[in-house]
């Protein structure tokens, strides 16, 4: 340490102090202002970027809320449309069933009427055939019975007896 104190020069110290002061003055005049201006501009840019990011985040939240609202509305509308479609389908099916039942009943009634008329026609034809057959049988029986005179006399007496009873 003694050696350092021995080598100390006041002249060198003075000139170093003058150079340091000039350097500080030059830096203050020419360098500090641009450095401080660029730092403040950078700070403003960062603040602006942060504000823009915050605004973008808020807009994204708003958009997400709007999207969710629109999605919910679309789902509700879809559900309403599906419900209406189901109701329309059920109504159409019910109307078709009612129409089919009505037409079925109408066809059944027509078939019953046709069956009844066919039955009546068949009965009339059957009666005609039965009466024709009966007459034919009666004719053959009468021919056989009336072929002899004794049988003719018995038949006439029997008929006369039946007429008196009635």
Automatic annotation (TrEMBL):
Membrane topology of this protein: Single-pass membrane protein
Cellular component terms per the entry's GO annotation: endomembrane system; plasma membrane; proton-transporting ATP synthase complex
Main localization, broad class: membrane
Molecular functions per Gene Ontology: hydrolase activity; proton-transporting ATP synthase activity, rotational mechanism; proton-transporting ATPase activity, rotational mechanism
Domain of life: Bacteria
A matching Pfam family: ATP-synt_B
Keywords of this entry: ATP synthesis, Cell membrane, CF(0), Coiled coil, Hydrogen ion transport, Hydrolase, Ion transport, Membrane, Transmembrane, Transmembrane helix, Transport
Coiled coil: 36-125
Alphabetized CDD domains for the sequence: ATP-synt_Fo_b
TM ranges: 12-32
Location(s) in or outside the cell: Cell membrane; Endomembrane system
Record InterPro entries: ATP_synth_B-like_membr_sf, ATP_synth_b/b'su_bac/chlpt, ATP_synth_F0_bsu_bac, ATP_synthase_B_chain
Cross-referenced PANTHER family: ATP SYNTHASE SUBUNIT B, ATP SYNTHASE SUBUNIT B', CHLOROPLASTIC
Assembly information from the UniProt record: F-type ATPases have 2 components, F(1) - the catalytic core - and F(0) - the membrane proton channel. F(1) has five subunits: alpha(3), beta(3), gamma(1), delta(1), epsilon(1). F(0) has three main subunits: a(1), b(2) and c(10-14). The alpha and beta chains form an alternating ring which encloses part of the gamma chain. F(1) is attached to F(0) by a central stalk formed by the gamma and epsilon chains, while a peripheral stalk is formed by the delta and b chains. F-type ATPases have 2 components, F(1) - the catalytic core - and F(0) - the membrane proton channel. F(1) has five subunits: alpha(3), beta(3), gamma(1), delta(1), epsilon(1). F(0) has four main subunits: a(1), b(2) and c(10-14). The alpha and beta chains form an alternating ring which encloses part of the gamma chain. F(1) is attached to F(0) by a central stalk formed by the gamma and epsilon chains, while a peripheral stalk is formed by the delta and b chains.
Family under the similarity heading: Belongs to the ATPase B chain family.
Function, in words: Component of the F(0) channel, it forms part of the peripheral stalk, linking F(1) to F(0). The b'-subunit is a diverged and duplicated form of b found in plants and photosynthetic bacteria.
Name of this chain's protein: ATP synthase subunit b
Native organism: Flavobacterium seoulense
Lineage, highest ranks first: Bacteria, Pseudomonadati, Bacteroidota, Flavobacteriia, Flavobacteriales
């Amino acid at each position: 340490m003694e050696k350092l104190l021995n080598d100390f020069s006041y002249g060198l110290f003075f000139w170093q102090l003058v150079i340091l002061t000039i350097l500080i003055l030059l830096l203050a005049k020419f360098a500090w202002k641009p450095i401080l201006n660029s730092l403040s501009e950078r700070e403003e840019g960062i603040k602006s970027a942060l504000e823009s990011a915050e605004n973008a985040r808020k807009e994204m939240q708003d958009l997400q809320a709007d999207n969710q609202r629109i999605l919910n509305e679309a789902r509700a509308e879809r559900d309403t449309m599906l419900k209406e479609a189901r109701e329309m389908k059920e109504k159409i099916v019910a109307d078709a069933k009612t129409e089919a039942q009505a037409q079925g009943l109408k066809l059944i009634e027509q078939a019953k009427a046709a069956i009844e008329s066919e039955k009546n026609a068949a009965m009339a034809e059957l009666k005609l055939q039965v009466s024709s057959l009966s007459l034919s049988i009666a004719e053959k029986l009468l021919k056989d019975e009336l072929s002899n005179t004794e049988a003719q006399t018995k038949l006439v007496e029997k008929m006369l007896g039946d007429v008196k009873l009635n």
